[in-house]
Write a structure and sequence with these properties.
The protein is of the alpha+beta class. The protein has helices at residues 2-9, 26-36, 61-71, 73-76, 92-125, 134-147, 153-169, 181-190, 219-232, 250-262, 267-272, 286-295, 316-326, 377-380, 390-393, 419-424, and strands spanning 177-178, 196-201, 207-208, 298-305, 336-338, 344-348, 351-361, 366-371, 397-399, 408-416, 447-448. The protein has three domains: 2-80, no CATH class; 134-169, no CATH class; 176-448, Cathepsin B, Chain A. The protein starts with a helix and ends with a strand.
């Protein structure tokens, strides 16, 4: 209708009802009718004047004119003013413009609605909505297992009671933990492995995998549990971890990150999460791990591999950096080097994992050894068997061609901070944390790999 008004009526001129003449306005049309069609004289023999619209005849032209005024006046007079929610008379052009403005307003409202729905979708996807957190997801998934006959009701009540106790004390229940893998790897590499020239391993690490309560969003928290399990086994960090004796559960870790924000770490990242993690299913990334570790007085750094450094989208510089981290103190020709170094947190879009070592192959290529929180306990426990072979190690090995995400971030720990150094480590403009994207961070105080 708006397009029709603009095209059909914007420049339309009134037409004479008695002939094809069109006038630029209604005053000109009246003048034309008065001069070109004067009142006729007596009707010619055999004929009477007729209405040009309906054919009705009259005794005189004056009667026909009166008929025209009474029956067809709307065709001779300008159209009545149109009221479009405003009190004035509008021309066709003004009406069309107002209708166009209304269309633009409606389009803006629709775009805002779509943006709001997209934002809400992202909130749901990344756990920032109000659908609950670890506890609610655990109960919901256990109830679903009972409904499907996969869990007896008695098991449900037992696991619920265990979970509530775990949450009350803020400690992990240990049901997704696998211990002793690093020690098993150390024994494995002592044997003659034909393709491995040398291997460096971190200190002992417990593997934690996702449970019914954090499936789909808990990888960052599980990787922190792996890091912490290694630090607790390393006497170098006893001072800064003296208040932590057991691995915290995920809700407790969320509260610990919130406490780090309250100290001033990563205000931009805190704002991204509306300063709240506890009770949500929010994804966390390298920045939240860095904030939490630094708040515990652990000296660490984020290294951002913000672009590919090898063919086909690969990141050989990342592998070289990890080798340098673990092999900073080379021990002669020892084939298996059990280093004092903690594992490394590694983030890429949508997932995070823990680097626990690196192989140097006989052909001089490098291979990372990685704990993935998505790998279940029964698979990790295969590595504990004396008969473990190269097939079992496929769970851990990642060659250069295996890591092709656009960007990677790693968080590496190297010592303790004094209380004074901890205060200094809270910069005014801290890196913004995001669980969904990674940024180049040269201007924000984060080391960027070439």
């Amino acid at each position: 209708m708006r397009r029709h008004l603009l095209r059909a009526h914007q420049e339309r001129e009134p037409r004479c009802p008695l002939c094809p003449f069109s006038a630029p306005g209604y005053d000109e049309l009246r003048g034309h009718v008065g001069s070109a069609h004067p009142e006729p004289g007596p009707a010619p023999a055999g004929g009477r004047p007729q209405c040009p619209f309906c054919g009705e005849t009259g005794a005189s032209g004056r009667q026909v004119e009166a008929h025209l005024r009474s029956r067809h006046g709307r065709l001779l007079d300008p159209p009545a003013p149109v009221d479009i929610n405003v009190g004035g008379n509008l021309s066709d052009l003004e009406l069309a413009q107002q209708l166009q403005n209304e269309e633009d307003r409606q389009q803006g409202l629709e775009e805002a609605r779509q943006e709001r729905e997209e934002f809400q979708k992202l909130q749901r996807q990344y756990g920032l909505d109000s659908s609950g957190g670890y506890k609610q997801q655990s109960l919901k998934n256990m109830e679903r297992e009972v409904a499907r006959g996969r869990m007896p009701p008695s098991e449900y009540h037992k696991r619920k009671a265990d979970m509530m106790e775990s949450l009350a004390f803020g400690v992990d229940d240990g049901k997704t933990k696998t211990s002793g893998v690093i020690e098993a790897l150390c024994r494995y590499y002592q044997n003659e492995i034909k393709d491995v020239r040398r291997v460096w391993l971190s200190t002992g690490v417990d593997h934690f995998h996702s449970s019914l309560g954090d499936r789909g969003w808990g990888c960052g928290y599980r990787n922190f549990q792996m890091l912490l399990s290694s630090l607790l086994q390393n006497g170098m960090y006893n001072d800064c971890l003296r208040d932590i004796t057991l691995i915290p559960c995920i809700p407790k870790i969320q509260s610990m990150i919130e406490d780090a924000w309250k100290e001033g770490f990563d205000p931009q990242g805190a704002s991204h999460f509306c300063n709240r993690l506890h009770g949500t299913k929010a994804w966390i990334g390298a920045c939240e791990i860095y904030s939490l570790l630094t708040s515990l007085r652990l000296k660490c750094q984020i290294i951002d591999f913000h672009k590919s450094t090898g063919p086909l989208g690969t990141h050989p510089r990342l592998f070289e950096w990890v080798l340098s981290y673990y092999s900073s103190n080379r021990e002669g020709s020892t084939k298996v080097v059990c280093t004092p170094k903690p594992p490394i947190y590694m983030q890429h879009q949508g997932h995070s994992r823990t680097i626990v070592g690196i192989e140097e192959r006989k052909n001089r290529t490098l291979c990372l050894l990685i704990f993935d929180p998505g790998c279940p306990s029964h698979e990790m426990q295969k590595l504990l068997k004396q008969s473990s072979d190269d097939t079992s190690l496929k769970l851990l090995r990642k060659f250069v061609g295996s890591l092709k995400d656009k960007q990677y971030q790693i968080v590496a720990i190297d010592g303790e901070l004094s209380p004074e150094e901890k205060v200094v480590s809270i910069p005014e403009k801290f890196l913004s944390g995001s669980p969904v994207s990674l940024y180049q961070q040269k201007e924000r105080g984060v080391l960027v790999a070439p």
